[in-house]
């Protein structure tokens, strides 16, 4: 087994919402690189925040001018109640990954990607200051569903492939740090610049490749060929020695051709259960939706991976806000 989600010894499951709002405040802001900002949230409520890690997703709820979080609903059906609110009382929220949890300090870290002021999440993180209040909607360590929001489910496989853009970097780093020492595979991460490469611990058998975009390259331009190369090198490709095969043809297709074919699929998210995987490989890919769909198409249709071996997550969509 590559990972285990065993509860910490002091956690006693009892009925309470699995995924709930935690009130917290910014304790520290660290500009890690030009495009990554680590915000550490702290607050007594975070003592029972879920500790499972990996690619644990949360909603970061942002304050409204004047009313802050006065209207933000609590309880199990916070989303249903939020949708019923008048537009001016609906706090914006966005999805992020928990990079680290320190329950003993009541602290949680989230690494935000800065992409300008085009979205409320990026704009908020760029200006975050200690003392700023926030609500995190995430897993409750004391609930039975404490692993809700985790999509890394590799089962018991021999080889893992993690691939994504900068928005997936926090999840990929957290997953890498959780892998057993004898894990093998690769992590391929495309980032906005050479200065955005982050330090990460990984098992020796897992090759970690950071791919900075250069000369105005767009998302996926480095990631897609690098994944194809890695797959070809590890010979997952069916018929990879045959230059006339579908796989070989695919590797000659441009990113634009792959993307437009993938868009026709119209799928944004598909996470297999994974627990029954055994002995083979598992791919986890996340980032800009059209790039990720192109990669999934390549892995499944050309490289011949079973769909149950590919977790595929569109983390954001070019030109579209998260809640569009
Ligand atoms: C499960 C999950 C985990 C995620 N984890 C993280 C994480 O740990 N860190 C992180 O930074 N993001 C993460 N994301 C991605 C994040 O939710 C999106 O980037 C989100 O759109 C950011 O919200 P925003 O308010 O900044 O922009 P939005 O209001 O959603 O979008 C406004 C505009 O910005 C564009 N845009 C959005 N994100 C980017 C980007 N990264 N680069 C360039 N343009 C962009 C959109 O296409 C749109 O045109 C995660 C997403 C998911 C689904």
Name the CATH homologous superfamily of the largest domain. Answer: Nucleotide-binding domain of ferredoxin-NADP reductase (FNR) module
Mean pLDDT: 86
> What is the helix tally?
7
Distance between the first and last residues' Cα: 38 Å
Share in β-strands: 25-35%
Can you summarize the main beta sheet?
6 strands, antiparallel, barrel
Which fold does the CATH topology of the largest domain refer to?
Answer: Rossmann fold
Short description:
With 324 residues, this protein is α/β, with parallel strands linked by helices. It has helices at residues 78-84, 120-127, 169-178, 223-234, 246-252, 255-263, 289-302, and strands at residues 19-31, 36-42, 57-61, 93-102, 107-113, 133-139, 159-164, 184-191, 206-212, 269-270, 281-288, 310-316.
Describe this structure in words.
Strands 1-2-5-4-3-6 form a six-stranded antiparallel beta barrel. Residues about 1-5 and about 240-245 have low confidence and may be disordered. The chain is built from seven helices and twelve strands. About 20% of the residues lie in helices and about 25% in strands. The chain is globular, with a radius of gyration of 20 Å. Helix 4 runs parallel beside helix 7 (about 290-300). It has two domains: about 20-140, Beta Barrel (Elongation Factor Tu (Ef-tu), domain 3); about 160-315, Nucleotide-binding domain of ferredoxin-NADP reductase (FNR) module (Rossmann fold). It starts with 18 loop residues before the first strand and ends in an 8-residue tail after the last strand. Strand 7, helix 3 (about 170-180) and strand 8 form a beta-alpha-beta unit. The chain has helices at about 80-85, 120-125, 170-180, 225-235, 245-250, 255-265, 290-300, and strands at about 20-30, 35-40, 55-60, 95-100, 105-115, 135-140, 160-165, 185-190, 205-210, 270, 280-290, 310-315. By secondary structure, it is of the alpha/beta class. The protein binds flavin-adenine dinucleotide (FAD). The site of flavin-adenine dinucleotide has 24 residues, from strand 4, strand 5, helix 2 and strand 12.
């Amino acid at each position: 087994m590559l990972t285990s989600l065993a509860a910490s010894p002091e956690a006693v499951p009892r009925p309470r919402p699995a995924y709930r709002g935690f009130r917290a405040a910014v304790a520290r802001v660290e500009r890690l690189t030009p495009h990554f900002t680590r915000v550490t949230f702290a607050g007594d409520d975070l003592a029972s925040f879920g500790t499972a890690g990996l690619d644990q997703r949360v909603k970061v709820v942002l304050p409204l001018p004047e009313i802050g979080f006065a209207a933000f609903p609590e309880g199990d059906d916070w989303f249903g109640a939020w949708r019923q609110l008048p537009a001016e009382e609906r706090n914006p929220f966005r999805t992020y990954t928990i990079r680290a949890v320190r329950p003993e300090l009541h602290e949680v870290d989230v690494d935000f990607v800065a992409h300008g002021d085009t979205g409320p999440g990026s704009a908020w993180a760029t200006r975050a200051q200690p003392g700023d209040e926030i609500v995190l909607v995430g897993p409750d360590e004391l609930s039975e569903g404490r692993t809700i929001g985790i999509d890394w489910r590799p089962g018991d496989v021999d080889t893992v492939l993690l691939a994504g853009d900068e928005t997936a970097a926090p999840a990929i780093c957290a997953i890498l740090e959780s892998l057993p020492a004898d894990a093998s595979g690769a992590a391929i991460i495309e980032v906005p610049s050479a200065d955005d490469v982050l330090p990460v611990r990984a098992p020796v058998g897992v090759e970690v490749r950071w791919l900075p975009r250069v000369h105005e390259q767009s998302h996926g331009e480095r990631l897609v060929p690098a994944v194809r190369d890695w797959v070809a090198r590890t010979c997952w490709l069916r018929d990879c020695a045959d230059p006339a095969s579908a796989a070989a043809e695919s590797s000659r297709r441009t990113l634009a051709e792959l993307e437009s074919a993938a868009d026709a699929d119209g799928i944004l998210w598909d996470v297999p259960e994974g627990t029954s995987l055994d002995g083979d490989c598992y791919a986890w890919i996340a980032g800009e939706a059209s790039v990720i769909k192109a990669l999934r198409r390549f892995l499944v249709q050309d490289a011949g991976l079973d769909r149950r071996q590919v977790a595929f997550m569109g983390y954001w969509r070019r030109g579209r806000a998260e809640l569009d």
